[in-house]
Specification:
The complex is a heterodimer.
Chain A: H1 2-26, H2 28-36, H3 41-73, H4 86-112, H5 116-121
Helix pairs in contact in A: 1-4, 3-4
Chain B: E1 5-6, E2 23-36, E3 39-52, E4 56-60, H1 67-74, E5 82-87, E6 90-91, H2 97-107, E7 108-111, H3 123-132, H4 138-151, H5 167-179, E8 185-189, H6 197-212, E9 216-220, H7 224-227, E10 232-237, E11 240-243
Helix pairs in contact in B: 3-4, 3-5, 5-6
Classes of the chains: A mainly alpha, B alpha/beta.
Chain lengths: 123, 244
């Protein structure tokens, strides 16, 4: 079960990394415009990370709600653990958010290296 | 981009003259090139020019002459060049990235040919972007945006998105965005290139009014009509200034 959970987490992180990489690529021109209008690399980093973590946060909320519903539905099958174990849920969300921040790092680093002049030509 | 290929070692630069005393911008022996294997392709060659405060300068030349490259270099978007660049007597060539960004934010506004408004933001939000990167309080930002909306007579359009505006209206918003932080210098890269003639005329009249009020303007243009709004023309060819 532990291995199953680890694989599920890894797949989720690959998904986050893929979506965020795609989002950064789609926003190359926008990032170039923002830098031409005065955004620093720190501003660009914040823009990408906030968007990425917002997406993960929304997913976490939906996931926790889903886990709570599924837990209640399965409570007759559970032994030795509550249907809604707040500690487990909280630890899982914290782990996911932390790992997602790492998954966001590579696309964010790519974003801050964008050359504004090249980005402005990108369509 | 210039197709002019030079030998691997470019000719030695002339000893640099001191920047002109009353110039907003002084360029001395500015060069920009890209490496291609063992050779280099030069985009800008030994650019020497002074631009005084309050001038309205047009940079003209065939495609690939280096006009937009020069504009982006002056606007400090591009730092991969050699030579000396003085802006308000500050040696930009010796400044680090943060200092250049500070100068650029404080003094320069840019207008693009393709407007480059952000499609997912309203007109109001697009105008607010440059202010949000300048440590200005929200209440003051609101006041500045409202002032510019009024000045450019686009108050009624503040909640519209760029795709709800005509090309001329989008460029008007782009010019408003460029002037909202009261820059000393506006750089315009073919600002009427995507507009029809009457819209282009309105934009050029607007630039003329801004210049009359004291803003220095440097525009890249292919149009002799647009160049006639200015006081000076710099001709570029293959990265060289061939006429001033």
């Amino acid at each position: 079960m532990g291995l199953f959970a680890a694989v599920a987490l890894a797949l989720a992180l690959v998904g986050v990394y893929g979506v965020l990489s795609y989002a950064v690529a789609q926003r190359t021109s926008e990032i170039g415009v923002r830098m031409a209008l005065g955004a620093t690399r720190a501003d660009v980093l914040r823009l990408v990370l906030v968007d990425g973590l917002r997406m993960v946060g929304v997913g976490a909320v939906i996931g926790v709600a889903g886990a709570a519903v599924a837990g209640r539905a399965m409570r007759t099958l559970l032994f030795g653990v509550g249907a809604v174990d707040l500690l487990t849920l909280g630890a899982t969300v914290a782990l996911l958010l932390g790992a997602a921040a790492i998954a966001c790092a590579a696309p964010a680093r790519r974003a801050i290296r964008i050359d504004p002049v090249e980005a402005l030509r990108y369509e | 981009m210039a197709l002019f290929r030079s030998s691997p070692q470019p000719a030695a630069a002339q000893p640099s003259e001191a920047p002109a005393v009353d110039a907003l911008i002084s360029l001395r022996n500015i060069e920009k090139s890209y490496a291609h294997g063992a050779s280099r392709t030069f985009v800008l060659r030994r650019i020497n020019v002074d631009i005084k405060e309050g001038e309205f300068v047009s940079v003209m030349g065939p495609s690939g002459a280096g006009k937009s490259t020069l504009l982006h270099m002056i606007g400090m978007h591009d730092s991969a060049w050699t030579g000396e660049y003085y802006f308000l007597d500050q040696p930009v060539h010796r400044l680090g990235a943060k200092e250049r960004q500070k100068l650029h934010k404080q003094y320069v506004g840019f207008v693009f040919q393709s407007y480059h408004l952000l499609d997912h933001l309203t007109v109001y939000e697009n105008l607010e972007i440059p202010l949000s990167y300048r440590d200005i309080k929200k209440s003051e930002r609101e006041s500045l945006v409202c002032d510019v909306l009024d000045r450019f007579a686009i108050v009624g359009k503040k909640d519209l998105y760029p795709n709800q505006l005509s090309g001329g209206q989008q460029q008007l918003v782009a010019v408003a965005r460029a002037v909202i932080s009261s820059p000393k210098l506006i750089l315009a890269d073919e600002p009427t290139g995507n507009l029809h003639s009457s819209q282009g005329r309105e934009i050029m009249e607007l630039f003329k009014r801004l210049n009359d009020a004291g803003t220095t303007i440097i525009q890249v243009t292919h149009s002799e009509t647009n160049a006639s709004y200015g006081s000076r023309v710099i001709q570029l060819r293959d990265g060289w200034i061939v006429d001033e």
